[in-house]
Write a structure and sequence with these properties.
heterotrimer; A alpha/beta (about 500); B alpha+beta (about 160); C mainly beta (about 350); A: about 500 residues; alpha/beta; Rossmann fold; four-stranded parallel β-sheet; 20 helices; about 10% strand; B: about 160 residues; alpha+beta; disordered C terminus; CIAO1/Cia1 (chain C); repeat (chain C); WD40_rpt (chain C)
């Protein structure tokens, strides 16, 4: 069983040395209202301890209860949500909760429920699985379809559509901020929950005002299925179970955020996350069927046409042509050239990055077509140490970038902590070096033969859903909030302080 | 609260039977188990308004003093094997000893063998002087430790010790 | 062979660490009283003899215990790190013959207490700083200029509070020891700024307070259980294949930690029960070299004593033991060859200068 490995930012904010799996974290007790037999809720009351049995109650006093009852404190269930809410407490207890989101739990859930399974496959996980099983990226869809349909009715989509909505909104967000702000401030753009957790726990006051509030493509797609597709298919949100396959464990924390959970209807936007390595672990049983390509014998899956991941004409998969984390900076560069600096389409420059200290901290400049003095400065910051340097610059007001794309993992999402693991044996057997293997994953993420990029605005379906569904209730549907999780200043602060 | 109904033990009326040498100012009174017990018995649990003696966390048997070697060993027993307040209780005991014992003494504060699931981890943390020092520099934590220790100050023997 | 020269009961609370500058003429000490004291030698006008005096007190720079101080190799900067999570950099200069210190930079980043700070020169002769702390990480910083520092790397790998770090072979290797009972050796990858865990030395059964290189790529470490271990490398570490170091990618399983054949350092000598309480500090008096096979080192312990050990091959001898060197735990011992002096500092705040004759 693979051990969960969070991004560095999350590990840094994990301050506890140990909490043994059997111990619960110290959470204040929540009193529970118990229902009486009449189904009317009545408050539990403490029994009055009378010093002298013969003492009579004052007749004017209202008797609280006729029978003395014992206060029962309900054992507090600590969920992943709570752990995120409580500051600085990502403990081994949380590791247990994370493992509850693994494949086993997912399977047992299905044996009890009759929901339609929606699998959201991230392009990085797809690339990872394609590389390790030596199959085409397109065939990974078949593989996932095959394995999940063993447990219920499942459909597989990749997150490309979510990306298109995300990118359209990011452009609008930047344009509205760019035109408002006089002073230069970076817009911190990220789909990375590791970064969000880190910002909320260490420098919330400094960073939250700068962070983009657009939901990540992952959460946008989950929301889309549960709230939009459900209506089209004349179903209820609870009829769907959305599980995503992601390259890191941090995504598990993302889906547990209270902002992505509706407590009234008890619906989560995305129900659970499986990492690529968890899927890999599970597939070890089926190694033979995979090598023999038996999973291809399954009839091709029915996709919702709107989310079709394959271009019908050239049969290429839609993908993003970038280093591996979604290509936000590259897209912003091209679109802003068009929309803010009014470059004609043929003249839009290719983005050209300049590495600062290393390839994980690089910058690019977009100059105004007519007036080269006007510039937009982009920065791409990957990896914890680079994030540190960026935050320091921001703190000292020395940050001159307009947009910064941030990812917690060095080399980006293709190198996520949850990607399929590669052993020395595998490398020896296949006569391939580590460097070459990583290049293979990069090719399976995007190459000009199998993949093609699509401008979101060329996708009529995305435009329609963006304008008709998302924009009208933007605050709730497109945007999210961040919370200051820096210090626990409750009464129990001392009791939960870790040292 | 983990253990809302802890068992309360009766406090022992431990009496020291005075010896003749106690009244002789020229003979140094050795520090013994009873004196350490006096220092610690009234330290209060962080959650219940009860003393460590009443909760049987500190007992006379759990204390060993080696005067000639300048060493004190205190064993304490958490109320339940999963008690998460154990490190805090250990820290309070340690802090009380640091403040009250003559500086020639070295001491260890350990969980009574077999009485806690994470015995080794807790012993390690409580006996790491650097960790304890840093802990007491955290205001919230210091406050809680001081609150636990305060009730025990009233019963302090006031003799100056070498 | 140890004779007290001078005693300084100046710190009002525990003195934790001492550091000599590169020119070996200034000593810095730090304490829980949140100050740093600077000592220098001066001619006493009355006795016409050289003596040490406390020439400056650096105050109001940290909000909590100052745990460690270290001088840069060019002698220009002093770094101090504290339980408040901050590392301060002081600029040292001589103004009218007086030692002057100015706090020019504050490095933030560690999530909680910073335990140690150690300077070194990078291969491009820039000042590099390594810091470690309770957040289980080791940070490597580069001094871009006096007031600007850039974080080069954050080393994660230890599963507990990192207590001590030291550099070996200039900036080629970094050794760290931790609450998690292991010593790790780190090396910088040749391609980019990635530091990789080259080896994890397991053999202690308690928190390791100090780890230092003692010559010939050997490592000496001491722990909470009064044990000292001398580790020797099995192979020539200069010639290890580069492929081994290509990491930073989380995809590749870290089995280098698991297989015995990949382990480089091995326990060579284990010294147990030489002290009765935890050993907090080690200092090498005579390192192992091609021409010297007798390792001589000092220990400072929680049993108030300072001990001098000699190790030839696997034979250990205690050359001398000074019980009651201090009335309380000895937190740090340093050796100054040029002046035949040992300095030590104690839990009660006292700093002592000793004359040491081999």
């Amino acid at each position: 069983m693979t051990q969960p490995k969070f991004s560095s930012g999350l590990i840094i904010t994990d301050l506890n040395d140990f909490i043994a799996p059997t111990q619960e974290c110290v959470k204040p007790i929540v009193e529970v209202e118990e229902n009486t037999k009449d189904n009317k809720s009545a408050k539990i009351s403490l029994s009055l301890e009378k010093e002298n049995e013969n003492e009579k109650e004052n007749e004017n006093e209202i008797e609280i209860e006729k029978k003395p009852t014992i206060t029962k404190y309900k054992r507090v269930q600590v969920s992943l949500k709570d752990c995120l809410a409580c500051s600085g407490c990502i403990t081994s207890a949380e590791t247990i909760l994370i493992s509850q989101q693994g494949f086993q739990e997912f399977i047992s859930h299905f044996q009890q429920n009759d929901q339609e399974i929606i699998v959201l496959l991230s392009p990085q996980s797809r690339a990872s699985l394609a590389s390790i099983y030596d199959i085409d990226s397109s065939k990974v869809h078949n593989l996932i379809y095959w394995i999940f349909n063993k447990y219920g009715k499942a459909y597989v989509y990749d997150t490309y559509f979510g990306w298109e909505i995300y990118l359209m909104e990011i452009i609008n967000e930047f344009i509205s901020k760019f035109r408002k702000e006089n002073k230069r401030k970076p817009l911190l753009v990220s789909t990375c929950p590791g970064w969000v957790c880190y910002a909320e726990k260490t420098y919330p006051d400094l960073l939250i005002p700068l962070m983009s509030t657009v939901k990540s493509p992952h959460m946008l797609m989950g929301f889309l299925f549960k709230q939009y597709i459900s209506k089209i298919q004349k179903k209820e949100p609870k009829d769907y179970y959305v599980v995503s396959i992601m390259p890191c464990y941090d995504k598990k924390l993302e889906v547990s955020r209270e902002d992505f959970y509706d407590s009234k209807t008890n619906i989560k936007d995305v129900d659970s996350v499986l990492t690529t390595s968890e899927v890999q672990d599970f597939l070890t049983e089926y190694q033979e069927e995979i090598t023999n390509l038996k999973f291809l014998e399954e009839k091709s899956m029915e996709n919702l046409k709107e989310f079709n991941t394959i271009n019908e004409e050239n049969k290429k998969i839609y993908g993003r042509k970038d280093k591996g984390s979604g290509g936000i900076t590259e897209y912003l560069f091209r679109k802003l050239a068009e929309k803010i600096f009014n470059y004609p389409k043929e003249k839009i420059p290719e983005i050209s990055f300049k590495n600062l200290r290393n390839s994980d901290f690089r910058i690019a400049t977009l100059q105004d077509f007519k007036n080269p003095e006007n510039k937009i400065q982009f920065a791409q910051v990957y990896g914890f140490q680079n994030i540190q340097n960026l935050v320091r610059k921001i703190k000292m007001n020395q940050c001159n970038y307009d947009i910064v794309e941030i990812m917690a993992c060095p080399f980006g999402c293709l190198n996520g902590g949850g990607q399929a693991k590669v052993s020395e044996k595998y490398l020896e057997l296949n006569q391939i070096s580590k460097m070459k293997f990583f290049e293979k994953i990069q090719k399976n993420y995007f190459n000009d033969f199998q993949f093609v990029e699509r401008d979101p605005e060329d996708n009529k379906e995305a435009l329609k859903i963006y304008h008709d569904f998302f924009l009208p209730l933007k605050e709730k549907r497109l945007n999210t909030e961040y919370h200051n999780r820096k210090e626990n200043t409750t009464e129990n602060a001392g009791l939960t302080t870790n040292w | 609260m983990q253990n809302p109904n802890p068992i309360i033990f009766e406090t022992q009326k431990i009496q020291r039977i005075p010896k003749e040498s106690d009244f002789d100012d020229n003979i140094e009174d050795e520090i013994d188990e009873i004196e350490i017990f006096e220092m610690l018995r009234n330290i209060v649990d962080p959650e219940h308004p009860l003393s460590l003696e009443e909760l049987n966390v500190i007992t006379l048997d759990g204390i060993k003093v080696f005067n000639k070697d300048n060493y004190v060993l205190v064993n304490f027993t958490p109320t339940i094997p999963g008690c998460t307040m154990s490190t805090l209780i250990g820290l309070s005991i340690r802090t009380k000893l640091e403040r009250s014992l003559p500086s020639r003494f070295k001491f260890d504060v350990l969980i009574t063998k077999g009485t806690h699931n994470s015995e080794n981890d807790i012993n390690k943390q409580v006996n790491d002087k650097e960790r304890c020092r840093a802990a007491l520099e955290q205001p919230h934590l210091l406050q809680i430790v001081n609150d636990c220790i305060r009730p025990s100050l009233q019963n302090q023997t006031k003799k100056k010790r070498k | 062979m140890l004779r007290t020269l001078q005693t300084f009961p100046l710190h009002k609370d525990s003195a934790w660490d001492l550091a000599w500058n590169h020119q070996k003429n200034i000593l810095a000490s730090c304490s829980s009283d949140k100050t740093i004291r600077i000592f220098k030698e001066q001619m006493n006008q009355k006795t016409k003899k050289n003596e040490w005096i406390c020439s400056s007190i650096l105050e109001e720079s940290h909000e909590k215990t100052i745990r460690s101080v270290d001088w840069s190799l060019d002698g220009k900067y002093l770094a101090s790190c504290s339980f408040d999570g901050i590392v301060n950099v002081w600029k040292y200069s001589l103004k009218n013959g007086q030692n002057d210190f100015e706090c020019i930079a504050s490095l933030e980043g560690h999530a909680n207490e910073v335990k140690r700070v150690k300077w070194i020169f990078s291969t491009e002769s820039k000042n590099l700083l390594a810091t470690c702390g309770r957040d289980k990480t080791i940070w490597i910083w580069e001094q871009i200029n006096e007031t600007e520092y850039e974080c080069l790397a954050v080393l994660t790998g230890h599963s507990g509070d990192v207590k001590y770090i030291s550099w070996m072979n200039d900036s080629k290797f970094l050794i760290s020891s931790s609450y998690d009972e292991t010593v790790k050796v780190w090396q910088k990858s040749k391609d980019e700024n990635h530091w990789l865990s080259l080896d994890t030395l397991a053999g202690h059964n308690s928190t390791i307070w100090c780890c230092k290189p003692c010559g010939n790529n050997c490592i000496l470490s001491c722990d909470q259980d009064n044990k000292i271990i001398l580790w020797k490398p099995k192979t020539d570490i200069e010639t290890l294949p580069e492929q081994k170091f290509l990491s930073g990618y989380s995809l590749f399983e870290e089995d280098s930690e698991k297989t015995e054949k990949n382990k480089i350092w091995q326990k060579f000598v284990v010294i147990s029960n030489a002290h009765k309480r935890p050993i907090y500090s080690l200092e090498i008096i005579e390192p192992l070299t091609e021409s010297n096979s007798e390792l001589i080192f000092l220990t400072g312990s929680g049993d108030n004593s300072i001990c001098i050990f000699s190790v030839i091959d696997s034979e250990v001898k205690i050359r001398s033991r000074y019980e009651n060197a201090h009335p309380n735990d000895v937190n740090c011992v340093l050796y100054l060859k040029e002046k035949e002096m040992i300095t030590s500092c104690c839990e009660d705040g006292i700093i002592k200068f000793w004359n040491f004759k081999k």
